[in-house]
Amino acid sequence: MELRHLATFRTLATTLNFTQTAALLGYVQSSVSAQIQELEAELGVLLFDRLNKRVILTDEGQRLLVYAEKLLSLAEEAHTALSARSEPTGAVTLSAPETLCTYRLPPVLHQFRATFPHIQVHFRPLPVPELRRSVLEGRVDVAFLLEEPLRATGLVVEPLLREALLVIAPPEHPLTQRTLVTPADLEGEPVLLTEVGCSYRNLFKRALAAAGVYPTTNLELNSVEAIKQCVMLGMGITVLPEVAVQVEVAQGRLVALPWSETGFEVVTQLIWHREKWQSPALKAFLSLIRERLRNPSFQENEGEVQ
């Protein structure tokens, strides 16, 4: 089993696209296909399904991915230990929820790429409920969470930044004229919700339930941008992190209601496996993230779970 085959497999498992994988690795597409076929023949299993021009990772492929991550990480560790390079090299695999991917991370990733041009960053989009498991299983090196302060066995949890939550309505909504809006005021109002497992969805629903409000007209969407568009069209009220709506609020396309609940916030947190070896590439990434995103009010290693 060749490491280059595993590296190609890992990249394809991330992109699920042969053309993108070839471009990322500097191969022709036929070379990517040949490497995957050789790996499948060696293991005697099908790693990817090709259905209607879509590439899907099989159950066997998902199991191999866990081991591929470990083997490639060990190979990188050995290379780093024996290399005389002074500039960090290697790769970092990360994942994050849509809100952070869209509104927090792009400037940080831009700076990281400019500062460490020889480190590859692989981003693996995952549903919110899978983020913690992906770290525990070794599928990603680090993941960002946007939720209430977390403690989880086997993980190091580093809080970075408090994120205020805003209850958002379209400009023409009657509640925008109020000086204070309480959960009880949302009785009978259509509410737009983010995906199941989203922390601020849960906070919002708990606040409403405490006031005896149980929205009956719910629309659930997995996209923050889609939710904002629906609110602007007058389809309902929602709750989103301030960072996701500050442009639209400033432009008057959305209105932040004067919400009565205090401490209505979540925390951007960084997590990695407690036993994860920190390569120079990973150390460089963590250092830059702390420099750009860490709030001084958080202490070093706050939330670390032994």
From TrEMBL:
Domain of life, per lineage: Bacteria
Keywords: DNA-binding, Transcription, Transcription regulation
Residues in HTH lysR-type domain copies: 1-58
GO molecular function, one term: transcription cis-regulatory region binding
Keyword Ribosomal protein: no
Pfam families reported for this sequence: HTH_1, LysR_substrate
Family: Belongs to the LysR transcriptional regulatory family.
Name of the protein in question: LysR family transcriptional regulator
